[in-house]
Design a protein that fits this description.
Elements lengths: L11 H8 L1 H15 L2 E2 L2 H13 L4 H15 L3 E2 L1 H16 L15 E6 L6 H13 L5 E4 L6 H14 L2 E3 L7 H15 L3 E4 L8 H18 L6 E7 L5 H12 L4 E5 L9 H9 L3 E5 L7 E3 L2 H9 L4
Parallel strand pairs: 3-6, 3-7, 4-5, 4-6, 7-8, 8-9
Antiparallel strand pairs: 1-2, 9-10
Length: 314
């Protein structure tokens, strides 16, 4: 079904529930198996902690959920619903301070968003969906095809520009990415664009080269606008599980990451890694991807995510 002929849009909670179904099923099957007519004792809590760790929620969140249940339900017979509710409450508590919209400062014209991440995390697609998001707000958007090492990325971003009505600055593969970013910002300033979204290469296997290139991009942007980039978004692929934590560590050392976009939550049973990443780094989560559709990049809602992940009622 094409994006123009889709069925009516579902509500956010319904989208999240569908998109997180693999993660939710993995979690709730374990919880139901543990807590059907069972008293909450030390053995049950230890087994629950294993279930939560297997779902990539991270040791801190797992320990906190167990501590919450020990404090409130220990020695009593508990139902799977009570455990899911406790999990949802704990996850929401962790994520609520980090659920922040990506607000464009109208005083910064253009508002420059540098998008970084490992190739394959959905970085270029995320930029296209962000372009649609900002265009729907009535903003003039420019894209910069700064992943000059991949012809496919340049072509993909060009298609997104046509689809969303955004302008684009692109050069042949192999062009200097920093020079392209400089040209894009120069044009965006001269022509009064509101938002400039810059794609970048993501070659983790060559951290030194990645660092040098990103540092050069930031340096040339600051020649034109000392405040640029106003945001640096890191895209993370939920299917990588705990590897996402290592990616955050690398890109925080390379670039001043200001916020996260978690993609491909619909394709994995490891959606809990978003909680582990948030807990460890305290970075704002701006958007999550729960499907292939252009509308499946959603502003992050901590409470809805927590309920959907835990399989708790809406």
């Amino acid at each position: 079904m094409s994006e123009t002929t889709q069925a009516p849009k579902r509500g956010l909670f319904a989208r999240l529930t569908a998109g997180l179904s693999r993660s939710t099923t993995a979690l709730t099957q374990g919880i139901v198996a543990l807590f059907t007519k069972r008293r909450l004792d030390d053995e049950a809590l230890a087994e629950l902690e294993d279930v939560l760790l297997a779902a990539d929620l991270g040791p801190t969140t797992a320990a906190n959920v167990v501590a919450r249940l020990r404090r409130t339900k220990f020695g009593r017979e508990v139902t799977p619903d009570e455990v899911r509710a406790a999990l949802a409450d704990e996850v929401a508590e962790v994520l609520a301070p980090l659920a922040r919209p990506l607000a464009v400062d109208a005083a910064a014209r253009p508002f420059v968003v540098l998008v970084v991440g490992v190739n394959g995390t959905g970085k270029t697609t995320t930029i296209g969906k962000l372009a649609k998001h900002f265009r729907e707000q009535g903003l003039r958007v420019m894209l910069a095809a700064g992943d000059t090492f991949r012809a496919a990325a340049i072509e993909q971003l060009t298609i997104w520009a046509e689809r969303t009505g955004a302008a684009i600055v692109a050069k042949p593969p192999g062009a200097d990415a920093a020079g392209l970013a400089f040209d894009a910002l120069s044009r965006a300033k001269a022509e009064g664009f509101d938002v400039l979204l810059i794609d970048t290469a993501g070659r983790l296997q060559n951290k030194a080269g990645l660092m040098a290139e990103l540092e050069k991009i930031v340096r040339v942007l600051k020649k034109l606008d000392p405040a640029a980039p106003q945001a640096c978004l890191l895209t993370l692929d939920a299917t990588t599980g705990q590897n996402a934590i290592g990616q955050v560590e690398v890109f925080r050392s390379v670039a001043a990451v200001t916020g996260l976009v978690m993609t491909k939550l619909d394709g994995t049973a490891r959606g809990g890694v978003l909680v582990a990443v948030a807990q460890k780094f305290g970075l704002p989560v701006h958007f999550i991807g729960v499907g292939e559709s252009v509308d499946d990049l959603q502003p992050f809602d901590a409470a809805a995510f927590a309920r959907a992940l835990a399989g708790a009622s809406s």
